[in-house]
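Hi, here's the filled form for the chain we discussed.

Project: internal
Contact: R.S.
Residues: 103
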Amino acid sequence: MTTLLPLAYGYIREGLLHDLNQRMSEDQLRKIISSLGYELGTVFREPAPENGLLPPAFVDLVQECLRAEVHAVITPHGHMPDMSVCRMVLEVRAHAAVHEVEF
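And the returned structure, exactly as it came back:
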């Protein structure tokens, strides 16, 4: 009998990856998500956010959390510190907890 793990989405702001290989960062996120007991659905990647606007990939993330009833978003530490409104939207509207992890 196969046990299905709960689904989680990843969120990465590419401008904060510094000189890390972007593919490597997604692989690391996948391993961390698995170690936390989740199955990775997809990783939403955001280029540098525009001032004053909700980042487009973030809007897609919220819509997908609502559609698929996913309640966990995993992001590298430091990728959402200045996004308190965004975190609140995820938590209140999509009922999704944000987990920041270290690479």
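Let me know if anything looks off before we file it.
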